[in-house]
Amino acid sequence: MQVAAYIRVSTDKQADKGYSLPEQEERIRAYCKSKGWELSKIYSDAGFTGSNMDRPALQELMREISAYDIVLVNKLDRLSRSQKDTLHLIQDIFAPAGASFVSMQESFDTTTPIGIAMVGILSAFAQLERSQIKERMKMGKEGRKKKGLWHGGVNIPTGYDYKDGILLPNDEAEQVRIIYEMFLEGISIRDITRYLQSHFTTRYTSWNYVGTVRRILSNPVYIGMVGDYKGQHEPLIDLETFDRVQVLLDERKQGGKVSTGKHLMTGFIYCGYCGSRVRSCCSVTKAKRYGYYRCGRADTGQLSKLDHKCELKPKNENEIDEIIKNEILKVKFEDVEISDSAATVLPDNSEEIKKIDQQINRLIDLYAICGDNVEELAKKLKDLKAKKTALEKISAKPKRATKKHIMESLRIAQDTFDSGSIEDKRMIIDSLISRVDLYNDTVKITWKFS
Q: Which residues 6+ apart lie within 8 Å of 277 measured at CB?
């Protein structure tokens, strides 16, 4: 009798339960000696699960099975934890080659009908145990999510390290922020991927696939979520940015053109109900583009699990812009009252200018690595430079908005508001308006003067 033995262990912990490879081998040798069998070879798989047959030693045994009369294991689940795989091995691999199967612990062999029946029964129990393990793992993951803890595993999100059950931001977090910034600048996912390939490396993933960037853009872990629950880790992206990205992703998925142009009231307008920034969105049909303002907290999906849905309904962008323009043009010079003590401090645009410089540098880099989309990149570069120039003009003004400056802005508005560029109009708005609060039935303007 030529005997082939198969032993397996999936984890180091199994050694503590009597499943170590040396212990299995010792028992098999003693069993063969007691039966008077010749143990020809021991096939050993260390660190492989029994839930599938993708195991080197098992595959080798299957190739060499015709050389043996018996396949011997310590216990049925050492061969496989799957009923389907177990019966396939015994009936379709071992039996046609003339090899019987013997499991020591269960005391049966397949040379008898009852042995065949017992294999089916015991394999079913092995699969039941496997199913119970999977269910416990699933429950454990869900429990960790409820506590705000990452579920572990090999797929650690880019930008984080996993230590003691918590995700901790690492030096790759800046790459995640750059991805979000570039996407909101209107740069395609493909071009973002090219930029990352030429500038960065990462420990846990690679930038070889556009799908990697797309998953990062839609993964709520970056706003501090674990599944449907608030996580204990530090977010890398703020809610407003994440929300804007989801809208743009949806627009691209639905075939709508992403709006990358300037919007008159971006940065000035807020939701009157919850205080969140209102953003500019668009829908595109074959005939027309429809722009509208929408509260940043009004979406369904991931954000609805953090905040209630806002009362503000989407408002037509052109109609709101027209209302604000008319209110500006209605202001009379004699109505303006402002004291030096109450003068408004004009915004410091140095950080915004610095960000634009970074965006310009990234676009210049893309010029070098992208053989296509050059015209689109050139247009974005031109727009960024125009925006930077406008901000620099604002920064060059005195730091306090006196009555003289207010009056000058009103004069320019009266003369050129309709014919001016978006950047010129935004400069006028910035000098006159502190903020605009949008309600369903009204628009409230807070002026920089009384």
A: 240, 267, 269, 270, 271, 296
pLDDT at 6 (0 to 100)? 96
Pick the catalytic residue from 10, 100, 188, 431: 10
Q: Confirm if 83 and 58 have CB atoms less than 8 A apart.
A: no
pLDDT band at 283 (very low <50, low <70, confident <90, very high): low
Alpha-carbon span 102 to 423, nearest angstrom: 82
- Read off the pLDDT of residues 356-368 as tens digits, 9 standing for 90 and up: 777 777 776 665 5
pLDDT above 60: residue 156: yes
Instruction: Write out pLDDT tens, residues 419-439.
Output: 777 777 887 888 788 889 999
- How long a stretch of residues is the chain? 450
CATH number of 147-237: 3.90.1750.20
Selection from 375, 388, 377 nearest residue 423 by Cα: 388
Q: What would the two tokens of residue 358 be?
A: 């970074």
- Lowest-confidence segment of 16-25, 129-138, 148-157 by average pLDDT: 129-138
Q: What is the pTM (predicted TM-score) of this model? A: 0.38
User: What is the model's pLDDT at position 298?
Assistant: 58
**Radius of gyration of the chain from Cα atoms?**
34
309 three-class SS? coil
The yes-or-no answer to whether 2-143 and 147-237 have a common fold is no
Architecture of domain 2-143: 3-Layer(aba) Sandwich (3.40)
- Given a cut of 50, whether residue 306 has pLDDT beyond it is no
Residues 6 or more apart whose Cβ sits within 8 Å of residue 140: none
Q: Which helix (H) or strand (E) holds 148?
A: none
Going from N- to C-terminal start, the domains of the chain cover 2-143, 147-237, 257-346+397-450, 347-395
44 is catalytic: no
**Cβ-defined contacts of 184-192 (< 8 Å, 24+):** 184/241, 184/244, 184/245, 184/248, 185/260, 185/359, 185/380, 186/258, 186/260, 186/380, 187/363, 187/366, 187/380, 188/373, 189/213, 189/214, 189/217, 191/366, 191/370, 191/373, 191/377
Question: Is 224 in contact with 239 (CB distance < 8 Å)?
Answer: no
